[in-house]
Amino acid sequence: xxxxxxxxxDHAALRHNLNRVRQTxxxxxxxxxxxxxAYGHGMLRVARTLTEADGYAxxxxxxxxxxxRNGFQQRILxxxxxxxxxxxxxxxxxxxxxxxxxxRQLDELLEGNDLKAPLPVWLKxxxxxxxxxxxxxxxxxxxxxxxxxxxxxxxxxxxHLASADDPAxxxxxxxxxxxxxxxxxxxxxxxxxxxxxxLGVPESHADWIRPGxxxxxxxxxxxxxxxQVGLRxxxxxxxxxxxxxxxxxxxxVGYGGTYRCPEAMPVAVIAVGYGDGYxxxxxxxxxxxxxxxxxxxAGRVSMDMITVDARALPDIRIGDPAVLWxxxxxxxxxxxxxxxxxxxxxxxxxxxxxxxxxxxxxTR
Length: 364
Fold this sequence. Notes:
By secondary structure, the chain is an alpha/beta fold. 26% of the residues lie in helices and 23% in strands.
């Protein structure tokens, strides 16, 4: 490890987490959700490891086309869908599948019959999230239009759970009831469950499931950690100690002097900051693992550096390895301290941080 941050990607953990998906929903096909550059892990590297998934789900057409350009022939679903006739044409030419969630999309798709091939469509119904999707009352009419048009290939039904991360929220059961009350006969397959649904709501599983955050080793539930639900962290953001200062009692540390040393103490400087994607608003006390000790953040996060209270590791040295999140330090905990969610931290690692692939070959 150099004296700068790096993100270590554990491909064995990716495979483990996909297996956890399979074990939890053994009768379901799996869309591996790799949108947003695979939640910050690198879309192509993740896709190469998750080839045993039944297909990939992305947010946008350009993500799907990048997969095709790089030789991936698996089924690919565009979740946020196409909007224009040209986009539908590109999706059809690339052999993609797309979601239809709005009347304008419907009109764009059905206005002609010049697609290279019939386009498989996932009709989205709004079962209670109220973000995208047709009202349940209109779904039958929309599916009738789609089912009899030559531009449309296989027709499927899809929806999205809004609150499955909170097992106490009754909305999840209401959404399941709404979704499965719709006539299934027009559809080849149905899909409802996200990561939280997969792990916590078996009745949401349907034909296809869509694991996202759980593939990357993050619990999809509120107040829960990955290990509690049998997942392993894929990304470990790590760096090294670059300086150790002996500070006097009463001296302040960092911009604004927001941390005041309660006694004479060592303060270690670690080469990582918000320029690398470490959350600027992480408060003093946020844990950092140096060697095998947890040390609390001391003072404000800078662009390139953080400072930690090193009293619990009196022999701390320049060059000691530091984990910001990942192996031995759950990203969920750092996100909670910083007032955000793990998704944002993982997606926010910046381009200047090199990625290191580990365990690429599966051991037998």
